[in-house]
Amino acid sequence: MNYRKLGKYPPYFFLINFTIAHKDMKKVMEASKHIHQILLQHLSEKAFVLGPSPAALARINNEYRFQILVKYKSEIALHNALKYLDDYYHDQYIKEKLSLKN
Question: Phi/psi zone of residue 38: left (φ > 0), alpha (ψ -120 to 50 degrees), beta?
Answer without folding.
Answer: alpha
